[in-house]
Design brief:
CATH topology: Rossmann fold
Strand order of the largest sheet: 2-3-1-4-5
Number of strands: 5
Number of helices: 8
CATH class: Alpha Beta
CATH architecture: 3-Layer(aba) Sandwich
Bound molecules: P1-(5'-adenosyl)P5-(5'-thymidyl)pentaphosphate
Shape: globular
Length: 209
């Protein structure tokens, strides 16, 4: 349980690993059990943060990696203050599709922003997830899923293979450093089975049904 009341769950991983699908599936299962669930995402989650998301994902707007980092945290500050913290204070379960681990992976490991600078911004936010699911999927499977979806690409999806290898290494390093918070999930089975694995891990970590 988070120190603020409810349970704060985040989902992390590379592009197309199935985070949004799994987050929606987990939210539906918990709601069916009668829990209040806030299902949200980053960058985004509030009106202001969604506006910042538009700038962040626009591949036609060149932005220095440090500027991207600060915009991710500007969006996060609003999201945490006006959506996540109030929900946790009510005792709700919050399921967030990406959170600050994505900034560490993409902006620090991927784009070279100093880890210490991102850690300083994380301290400023002052909220740590209770449990972070790292969805793991081989790069070629993720690419196949994204190609099948046929949606336009954004700033990050345009990055090359070497960038995504650094991002994956970043997530792996963070999961190894915080085994009490991270749970690795095999994201290759069909969606229902991935959600089963999340529910099982959640029961194991929290003792909840
Ligand atoms: N970013 C974000 C940063 O650089 N720094 C930060 O601090 C933060 C917070 C956000 C981008 O911003 C970057 C990371 C991202 O590049 P986004 O569009 O929200 O942009 O990107 P993603 O979070 O990567 O979302 P995606 O939608 O691309 O990937 P998901 O959510 O992992 O995948 P999902 O669930 O949408 O599924 C993709 C496709 O696969 C199918 C789905 O139906 C869908 O078509 N699918 C499955 N197919 C088979 N089996 C399964 N188990 C499946 N699960 C899903």
């Amino acid at each position: 349980m988070s120190s603020t009341g409810g349970l704060f769950i985040t989902l992390e991983g590379g592009e197309g690993a199935g985070k949004s699908t799994a987050a929606a599936g987990l939210a539906a299962r918990l709601r069916a059990e009668g829990q209040e669930v806030l299902l949200t995402r980053e960058p985004g989650g509030t009106k202001g943060a969604e506006a910042i998301r538009g700038v962040l994902l626009d591949q036609d707007l060149p932005l220095d990696p440090l500027a991207q980092t600060m915009l991710h945290f500007a969006a996060r500050a609003d999201h945490v203050a006006h959506s996540i913290r109030p929900a946790l204070a009510r005792g709700a379960t919050v399921i967030c599709d990406r959170f600050y681990d994505s900034t560490m992976a993409y902006q620090s490991y991927g784009q070279g922003v100093a880890l210490a600078d991102v850690r300083a911004l994380i301290r400023l936010i002052g909220l740590t997830p209770d449990i972070t699911f790292l969805l793991e999927l081989p790069e070629e499977d993720a690419r196949r899923r994204l190609a099948a979806r046929a949606r336009g690409t954004d700033r990050y999806e345009e990055m090359g293979e070497a960038f995504f290898t650094r991002v994956q290494k970043g997530f792996a390093a963070m999961a190894a450093a915080e085994p009490g918070r991270f749970v690795k999930i095999d994201a290759s089975p069909p969606p229902g089975l991935v959600v089963d694995a999340l529910c099982q891990a959640l029961r194991g970590r929290t003792g909840r049904r």
